[in-house]
Amino acid sequence: MEASTARVSRQAAPAGSGAAAIVRALAEAGTRLLFGVPGGGPNLDVVGAADAAGLRFVLARGETAAVIMAAACAELTGAPGAVVVTRGPGLASAVNGIAHAALDRLPVVVIADTVAAADAGRISHQRIDQAGLGRSVAKAVITVGGPGAGEAAARTVRTALAAPPGPVVANMDDGAQDEDDPGGRSVPTTPAEAQTPAGLVAEAARAGASVLAEAVRSARRPVLLLGTGAIPHTAAIRNALAGRCLPALHTYRARGVIPDPAPEAAGLVTGGTMEWPLLATADLIVGLGLDEAEMIPAQWEYAARTIMVAEPGTGHGGYFTGATELEMPLADAARVLAGGPGHDWPPGAGRAAQADAAARLAAAAVAAPGRLAPQQVVTTVRAHTPAETIATVDAGAHMLVAMPLWEVPEPHRLLVSSGLATMGYALPAAIAAALSAPRTAVVAFTGDGGLGMTLAEIETAARLSLRVVVIVFNDAALSLIKIKQKPSGQGGEEAVRYRPVSFAAAATALGAAGAAVATEPDLAAALAGALRRPGPTVIDVSVDPAGYPAVMDLSRGQAGRRIVAGLPGPRGGQPKREGACPVTITVAKFRDVAEGTQPGQFMIGDREPVTSLADLDPIYKRLLDEPVTAIVAVIGSDGLPNLTPVWFDYEGDTVLLNLATHRKKVAWLRRVPNATFLLMNPENTYHWLSLKTVLRREISEDDPVEGQRVTDQLDRIWVKYTGNEPPYALRDPSMDERRVLFELEVVKVATFGRP
Ligand SMILES: Cc1ncc(C[n+]2csc(CCOP(=O)(O)OP(=O)(O)O)c2C)c(N)n1
Ligand SMILES: [Mg+2]
C-alpha cells in the first residue's frame, strides 16, 4: 500500500466502542473508503477501527474536500460515503461538503469527534454546538457511543441511505449514556420514513398511471425530462422508450440515462433557455425523477401541460408551476409514455436539438492569439479521451461550456455539484472517481478560482498515485461573476480578477506533473501524456473568457430561445409570457448634441422600460411607422456583421422581417438568431432608433395554415414603402420566389436625438 494510505493506527478501537460500531455499520453497507483529516485520539480510533474492518483510510488536505470525495464515492458506488473529522474546526470546515451532499441527496456519514457531553460544562476549547451545526446542513445528527453505540451506528447508516439519501453527522461520544443526550439527536423526519401504507402507495400509483395515460393519449409532441431519480431505472427507461424517438432532456446529474449519441438524447434541462426550442414546441412535458434542487432559479412558464412523476415517497416541491405531480414507479411511467399513440416529432428530434445547442455554443467560441476558447478545450479533451471517461466539473463559467459539450454514454460519467453548485468540487470528486474506478480515465474540469480553493488536494492525488487529469480553465478571474458584474456600483476588476498563477508550476511543487498549453495540438499532446502517466497531471490551459457572455446568453438568456432547423416552431407562436412575467423592453436614451456639445454627450442619459413598441415616445415611434428604410445587421457565415437596407414592419414588441427564401440572410439568421435594426431619420441622421432583436419564429409563405399571413404582410409593407396598390410587384421573375416571415422579439431599444 502507498505511503499515502498508511494506516495511522494499527490498533483497533476497543470492541463495543462507538468507533468500532460506526465502522462496522459502514462496512456492512458496502463502504470501502474512509476519507478525512483526523484530529486527536478518538478520531484515530475511528481510523484504526476502519483499518481493522478493511476500510481504506484516505488522508485529505481539507475536510470539505474529504466530504466531497466521500459523496462522489457514494454517487458512484451507491454505498454510503464515510468521513472522519475532528471536533470543532474539523466539523466546521466540513460544512460546505456536507451541504453539497445534502443538496445532491448523497448518503455520507460524517464521523465527528466531540467534546463529550460529560465535559461540556467544563471544556469550552473547540466546543461548538455540533448538533445545531449539523442539523442546519445535514439530514440528521446522531450521537454514537456508549451502550447504545451499535444501534445508533446502524441507524446512522440507515438514515443516510433512506430515500431521499443525505449526509448524517455522527457525533462520537463514548461517554454517552443514551441517545437522548443533548450533545446531538437524530432527526430523521423525512417523508419517506413516515411510512405510507402500501395500499395507499399502490392506489396513488394506479391513479397516476391513468392520469399520465390520459395525457399521453392526446399529446402529439411530448417531451421527457429525466432527473437524477431516473438513474436507478436507466435500463427500464431505455427499454420502454427504445425506438419511440421521444426527445428526452436530462438534468446535469442524469446525463447518460439515454446515451448522448442516441436520437432521443436532447441535451440539458436546467431551468435556463437552452432547452427552450423543444419545450416551447412541446404539448406535454413529463418529468421522471427530477429533483428541484437540480433546477436553477427561474420561472417555469411553458405552455405545455407539465406532469412530474416521482418514485413513491420521494415527494415534490413547487418549482414546476402548474405541474401535475404524480407518485408512481418511474419504470411504470416510462412504459405508459411508450404506450402512447404515435407523435409528430421528426426522427432524431432530440439529437437535433442537442446538436444545435452544441453548434451554437461552438459558434460562440472566441479566442485571442495565444489562448484557447473554453469550447475548444472541452471538445479537444473529449476527442482524445475514451468514451467511458469520468469527467468532473467545477462551478464557474467554464461549467456552462463543459456540461453541454461533454458527451456521455451512460450515467455517472459526468459529475457535478448540482444542488449546491459549489466551487472546489471537481478535483476532490475526481480523486474519489479515480479511487472508485481505478481503470477508468478521470478528467477534472475546473476554473482557476475553484482550483485555488482546493489546490492542496493535488498532493493527495500525487500521494495516492491517482491518474487524474486536471484541466484548468485559467483566465485569472472569477469569470462567471465577472460576466454578471454591472458596469457601476458593483466594484471593478479588483472584485473578480486574480493575479496570473502558474498552476502547472504549482502542480509540480505538489508532486504532480504539470503542463501549460495554449493550442489544441499542445493540449492533445499533454492529455495523451497524462493518460499514460500513473499519477496526476495538471494541464494549465490559457483560456480566453471573451465568449462567456454569449455562452451565458445561449444557456440562460434570450439567445437560448431559438428556432432549430428541422424542428417544429414554438406552439402558439410566442412563448407564454403574459400574466406574472410581462415583457419589458429597456429603452436606453442617449444624450445628444442637438443643442451643441455637452458634458457626457453620447452617453446613456436615461433608461425607460416599455412593454410594446407602441409605447415608445412618439418622436421615435414615428421612425417605425413612417416609410423609413431600416438597416438590419445579421451575423454572416464568416462571423462578420452584415448590413443591408430593409423595409420595416412590426406588431407589438415583434419586428417582422419578410425575406425571399433564397437570400443568404435567411440562412444567416437561422444560424445566429439575432438581428439589430437601425432606423435613421432621412432628414436628420442625428435622430435615430436602434432595436436589438432575437429570432422567435419563422413562417413560410407555403405554410398551409399561416402562409397567407406572410403574403399579406408583404403586400402591407409594399404599400407602406411604395404607396402602390398591392400585390407586391418585385418578386424575382426568373424563379418562383417564395417568402419567409421572421418574427423577431425586441429585447433592447436605444434612442438618439430629435427630429
Ligand atoms: C464555494 C463557492 N464560493 C463561491 C461561489 C460563487 N461562484 C460561482 S462560480 C464563481 C467563479 C468561479 O471562478 P473560476 O473557478 O475561476 O471559474 P470561471 O468562472 O472563471 O470559469 C463563483 C465565485 C460558489 N459557487 N462556490
Ligand atoms: Mg476563472
Provide the fold topology:
Layout: H1 18-28, E1 33-37, H2 41-53, E2 56-59, H3 63-77, E3 81-85, H4 89-103, E4 108-113, H5 130-137, E5 140-144, H6 149-161, E6 167-172, H7 198-217, E7 222-226, H8 234-241, E8 248-250, E9 265-268, H9 276-279, E10 284-288, E11 305-310, E12 324-327, H10 330-338, H11 349-363, H12 374-383, E13 390-393, H13 397-405, E14 414-416, H14 426-436, E15 442-447, H15 448-454, H16 457-463, E16 468-474, H17 479-482, H18 503-509, E17 513-517, H19 520-532, E18 537-542, H20 548-556, E19 585-590, E20 604-610, H21 618-625, E21 630-635, E22 641-646, E23 650-651, E24 654-660, H22 664-671, E25 674-680, E26 688-700, H23 707-722, E27 739-752
Parallel strand pairs: 1-2, 1-3, 3-4, 4-6, 5-6, 7-8, 7-10, 8-9, 10-11, 11-12, 13-14, 13-15, 15-16, 16-18, 17-18, 19-27
Antiparallel strand pairs: 19-20, 21-22, 21-25, 23-24, 24-27, 25-26, 26-27
The structure holds thiamine diphosphate and magnesium ion.
Thiamine diphosphate (TPP) binds next to helix 13, helix 15 and helix 17.
